[in-house]
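Escalated from tier 1: adenosine monophosphate holo job.
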Amino acid sequence: MVAVKRVVDYAVKIRVKPDKSGVETQNVKMSMNPFCEIALEEALKIKESGLAKEVVAVSMGPSNCVDTLRTGLAMGADRAIHVEASRDLVPLTVAKLLKKLVEIENPGLLILGKQAIDDDCNQTGQMIAGLLGWPQGTFASKVVLDKEKQVATVDREVDGGLETLCLDLPAVITTDLRLNQPRYATLPNIMKAKSKPIKKFTLEELNVEIKSDLEVVQVTEPPKRKAGVILSSVDELIDKLKNEAHVI
Ligand code: AMP
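Tier 2 regenerated the structure:
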C-alpha cells in the first residue's frame, strides 16, 4: 500500500493568501507529492520483481485527490482508495485513517514519502508506524525485500553516512530522493487507468474524527533577499566583511 498526497506542484511559485491563513491553492497546478511518486515507483518495482501481488494507492483529502490517484493508477498501481475529507488533514489524522485502511487491506508493506512538500511535516510515516506497532525504515535510499525471511533491508541516508536496517515485515518505509527515478505515465496507461477501480470511504465510515491540537497562527512569505553588489577589489571585500558583515 502506498500513500500519495496531492500537493501544489513543486514548480509553482507559492503565493501566500492575503489573510495569511495559508497558501493559495485555487487555480494553482496540483500534482502528486514528489516523494510519494518515489514511494509508488518503489512499490511498482517490488511488484514487477514478483515480490508483491498488487499495489494499492491511497489518498486522503478533497474530491480532486482522485486526479492524483488516477495519476498513480496510470503509473501502474492496480487500484486505489480515496478517503474523502473536505478539510486539510494533519499528519496524525492521516496516520489514523491509514491505520484503518491497513486493518481493512492487510498490506505486507506500507510505503510513504518521507515528507509532503506542502506542509514539510515529515511525521506521517513515523506516526503510522507507531500506531500500528510496525518497524519503520525512514528516509530510505535502498530497499531490498526477502520474501522468504519476511524482512526488508533498508539503507537510510543519515548525517554520518548510510545506516542499514533490517525490518521484520509488515513494516513502514518512507522514501528519500535518491531511492529511484519515478516513471512517467504513458498515454496507453493513462487511458487504462480510467477503468481501474477507486474505492471511496468517508471519515464517518472509518470512524475517524478530524480533530487537531495544532492551530496555524499565520503563514508569511520569507523576507525578500537584498540585491547583491559587485565589488571592485579584494580590499573592498575585506573591508565589507570586517566592517559591515562583521564576520572577520
Ligand atoms: P508529511 O508527514 O505530511 O510530511 O507527509 C509524509 C507522507 O505521508 C507523504 O509523502 C504521504 O506519503 C503521506 N501523506 C501525508 N498526508 C497524506 C494525505 N492527505 N493523503 C495521502 N498520503 C498522505
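The chain has a mean pLDDT of 95.
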